């Protein structure tokens, strides 16, 4: 489990195509400092397992399902990625409950800068729109964010406001219209929906 509070921007060091999988190597001095084999690290919001660790880098195997549902397959060497280690029992839950299980991808539609913050509009798959509410939580590339507004339609979108800290310390600081981002909706909303339907 994660909180959606990005710990550092890492760098993709290598991508090894394995046919139906990908071996991803990422440099992240902070998250690898105490990483052990089998630990979970969220990479752009995708929960991955540390397969090997060497110095400031770790490798993770990305299976077909993850490649099909996330943006990890489109990464290139040198790309920056959001990194977060799994929570511990004493971790402050600064964001919200994040599983690292990406529900789908969206596309950055627009960015509207203000003096001290920026409003970003992002598309999302129609089947995920029902889980979003204004002032609710969503994870974008592993970043816990508060939904400002939701525009339901055949092509739904939502907006988030980014504070200077988020702009400076995460990939959302440089994502541009047309860029694909990973989305994870609030897991509590999914459980509530299931219980109400029963």
Topology:
Blueprint: E1 8-17, E2 21-27, H1 29-32, E3 40-43, E4 46-49, E5 52-54, E6 57-63, H2 64-69, E7 80-85, E8 104-113, E9 118-123, E10 137-140, E11 143-151, E12 157-162, H3 164-169, E13 180-185, H4 187-197
Antiparallel strand pairs: 1-2, 1-7, 2-6, 3-4, 3-7, 5-6, 8-9, 8-13, 9-12, 10-11, 10-13, 11-12
Task: Describe the model.
There is one protein chain. The chain is mainly β. Helices cover 14% and strands 41% of the residues. The protein has 4 helices and 13 strands. It has helices at residues 29-32, 64-69, 164-169, 187-197, and strands spanning 8-17, 21-27, 40-43, 46-49, 52-54, 57-63, 80-85, 104-113, 118-123, 137-140, 143-151, 157-162, 180-185. The strands form 2 sheets. It has a 7-stranded antiparallel β-sheet. The chain has a 6-stranded antiparallel beta barrel with strand order 8-9-12-11-10-13. Strand 5 and strand 6 form a beta hairpin. The chain is globular, with a radius of gyration of 16 Å. The relative contact order is 0.19.
């Amino acid at each position: 489990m994660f909180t959606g509070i990005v710990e550092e921007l890492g760098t993709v060091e290598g991508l090894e195509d394995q046919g139906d999988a990908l071996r991803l190597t990422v440099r992240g001095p902070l998250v690898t400092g105490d990483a052990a084999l089998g630990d979970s690290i969220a990479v752009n919001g995708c929960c991955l397992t540390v397969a090997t660790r060497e110095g400031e880098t770790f490798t993770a195997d990305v299976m077909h399902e993850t490649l099909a549902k996330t943006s990890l397959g489109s990464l290139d060497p040198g790309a920056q990625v959001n990194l977060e280690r799994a929570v511990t029992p004493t971790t402050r839950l600064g964001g919200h409950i994040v599983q690292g299980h990406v529900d789908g991808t969206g596309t950055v539609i627009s960015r509207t800068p203000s003096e001290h913050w920026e409003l970003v509009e992002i598309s999302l798959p129609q089947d995920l729109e029902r889980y979003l509410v204004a002032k609710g939580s969503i994870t974008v590339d592993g970043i816990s964010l508060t939904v400002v507004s939701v525009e339901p339609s055949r092509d739904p979108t939502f907006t988030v406001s980014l504070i200077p800290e988020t702009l400076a310390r995460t990939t959302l600081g440089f994502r541009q219209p047309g860029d694909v981002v990973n989305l994870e909706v609030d897991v509590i909303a999914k459980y509530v929906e299931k219980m109400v339907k029963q």
